Amino acid sequence: MEKSESTKIDVEETNKERKGKAPLLGTAAPVVAAAATTKLAKGGAKRGIAIFDLILRIAAFASAIGAAVAMATTEETLPFFTQFFQFEASYDDLPTFTFFVVAMAFVVAYLVLSVAFSIVCIVRPHAVVPRLLLIIFDTVFIALATGAAASAAAIVYLAHNGNEDANWLAICQQFGDFCERASAAVVASFITVVILIIMVVLSASALRRH
Q: For residue 65, what are the contacts with CB-CB under 8 A and spacing of at least 6?
C-alpha cells in the first residue's frame, strides 16, 4: 500500500511539473515571431536606404560629369587680336582647372563602379561588407572632389575680382563666357560633394541598424 501511494504521489508531482512548464513553451512562439518581424522591418528599412543611395549615386554622377564636361570645354577667344597674338583663355592654361577636370573624371568613374555595390546592398540589405566599402571609398572621393572644387573656386574668385596686392587683374569683364562656364562647373562640383556626404551618412545609418 505504501508503495502504491508513493507511486501515485510521484505521478501527481510529475503532472504538476509538466503543467508548470507548459506556459514557458507556449511563450517561445510569440518571441520568435516578434524577432522575425523586427528583422523583416530592419531589412525593409535598409533596402529603402539602399534604393535611395542608388538614386543619389545617379544624381552625383550627373552633377560630376556635368562639372567635368563644363570645365573641359571652358575656353573663349576674344574677337579682337593684334598682329602677333590672339587673346584666348582656356581651362588648360591653368593647372588648377586641369587638376579639377582630372579629379572629377576620377569621381565619375568611381560613381559608375560603385553602382554595382549599391545594387548588392539592395538585393542583400543585411550585407555589411559592401556598405563598409562604400563608406570608405565615398569618404576618399569626398576629399578628392572637395579639393578640386575648393581650388577651382579660388581661381574663379580671382578671375572675377582679381587681387590688387598681387597685381592680378580680373579677367571676367573680358572673358565673360569663360568665367560663366568655370563658375557653373564649380557649383556642380560642390553639389557632387554634398550628395557624397549624404551617401556616407546614409550608409553609416544603415550599418547602425545591425
A: 104, 108
Q: What CATH topology corresponds to 46-208?
A: Four Helix Bundle (Hemerythrin (Met), subunit A) (1.20.120)
**Which three cell numbers, joined as nine digits, stand for 128?**
555589411
The answer to whether 191 and 183 are in contact (CB under 8 A) is no
Who contacts 169 (Cβ-Cβ below 8 Å, separation ≥6)?
162
Q: Report the predicted TM-score, pTM, of the whole model to 2 decimal places.
A: 0.75
Picking from 204, 42, 36, the residue whose alpha carbon sits closest to that of residue 125 is: 42
User: What ranges do the domains of the chain cover?
Assistant: 46-208
What digits encode the pLDDT tens for the residues 50-109?
899 999 999 999 999 999 999 999 887 766 555 556 667 788 888 999 999 999 999 999
- Candidates 105, 76, 77, 95; CA nearest to 154 is 95
